[in-house]
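COMPLEX REQUEST
Ligand: flavin-adenine dinucleotide
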Amino acid sequence: MLTYRDTAPGGSEPGAPRHGGPAHHGGGPQGRPKAIVIGSGFGGLAAAARLGARGFDVTVLERLDGPGGRAYVWRQDGFTFDAGPTIVTAPFVFEDIWKLCGRDFAQDVTLKRLDPFYQIRFDDGDVMNCSGDAAAMRAEVARIAPDDLAGYDRFARDSKRIYDFAFAEMAHQPFHKINKMITMLPRLLRLGGHNSVHAYVAHRVKSPKLRFALSFHPLFIGGNPFNTTSFYCLINYLEQGWGVNYAMGGTGALVQAMADLVGHVGGKLRYGAEVAEITHAQGRATGVRLADGERLAADVVICNADPATVYRTMVPGLKRRRWTDAKIDRMDYSMSVFVWYFGTKKRYENVPHHSIVLGPRYKDLLRDIFRNKIVTEDFSMYLYRPSASDPSVAPPGCDAFYALVPVPNLDSGDDWEKLAEPYRQRVERRLEETMLPGLRDQIVTSRITTPIDFRDRLRSERGAAFGMEPKLLQSAWFRPHNRSEELESLYFVGAGTHPGAGLPGVVSSARVVDEMIPAASVVAGAAGSAHV
Ligand SMILES: Cc1cc2nc3c(=O)[nH]c(=O)nc-3n(C[C@H](O)[C@H](O)[C@H](O)COP(=O)(O)OP(=O)(O)OC[C@H]3O[C@@H](n4cnc5c(N)ncnc54)[C@H](O)[C@@H]3O)c2cc1C
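STATUS: Structure written out below.
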């Protein structure tokens, strides 16, 4: 198992100071320096826990009525629906934070490794089970395309090399200086980072089915496999190395455990607290103003909200050097998703925990979603059935599901208020034809999420489900930096900054920020007597 980092130098007691220890400064309890975290997504909670463990007086401000952001939980009619993330691929990033906070992750969260990981149902009805059992996986590859077995083995070896560089090294480094990017460039090119995930896979296997099965993973984090750097092949290695895991109780149980961890290190979480403005003076963030007018001062502000939205709307009066409105307009934003959450009054015992139900097209469908921005007649979808592994998420004898369809972001110009119900019906029909016969008569509860929710509820530019698209020229230095280019004492965590979307990415962004924020004493000293 990888040693992610020795995260607790000198002990990991809650509140134990690092990098020199907490300072004595104005407002916080016992004179601790104040950190405000805007947003309680995984990135925000991870940052809050880390800074709390370092002795900061942390307050998390969340505009919604509960934690999680994209990983919010919908509860209705006895069903528990994870709104977004369903797969935990890198448990060590969580274990690391728990250790730092003086707690044992396994005591607070039960992860279940799924076997098989997921089932892919191709449009011709053929099914492929993907798993972490190397022999079973090779047998499945050999069944589908015997000539591709050697290429598959090569892919498995190469994805480890990519992981060693792109995740174990790059994901935890700050990329706020162009020099870092330049020094890494030769290795990046040697490892094929300039190729797309699909090109990388296609170079190794020929079968279209295998090409799909080994290349679709960037869609989990909002990237088009035909356009996303091959470095995202590391997701395959994460899956093989640490499994496709499910947090018992749902991803929401992991969110809640993390919110509790923040409390354990003395942090506070305030819900229904919408930040309207990041206040600043002399080029330094000084705190926030809430939508209801309340002002809170801080020594550091860590922003988990979408950087595009923040720079565009939440720093009025600031002359922005890099993230001007024009620059924000020029960036490419990820796809969005249509998600239908539903409960059935019977159990579909043959349906696995995770399924991918493919339509007839792959590359052209993605071009329509990402580039042409068309809501097409045909679609592929991901079907989530957590009740396959965890009866607690549905009433007895029932199943909880969600069906997720990648769709264009709001640049498509579609009116999702009107489109939502007809679209849901199309998804329902497709599920009836494929995985869930007789579905219509079994539904007892239902709700939907459309790109509008990402724009209005989660405040994401263009209703993108995953923030800025993870293309090579929008990654690392090219992404909004973890340490703001515009204001001192302002930091970013989460999908919109480096390294990017997905739980391993956003939780790692908190580690990058943790290492960038100087000793609490230095923070407080530099802030001096700044007031809002
Ligand atoms: C449907 C779906 C499925 C996914 N599946 C997976 C998966 O299986 N595995 C995986 O690893 N990843 C998955 N992802 C990606 C992953 O969920 C996200 O990348 C990650 O959760 C984003 O976390 P974040 O830290 O960026 O914060 P977010 O979840 O984006 O949260 C940001 C928070 O900031 C709050 N906020 C915004 N503005 C303000 C303001 N002005 N004041 C106060 N609060 C504010 C928002 O309300 C929100 O709670 C999925 C994403 C989606 C959408």
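REMARKS: The longest strand covers residues 336-344. Residues 417 and 452 are 8 Å apart (CA to CA).
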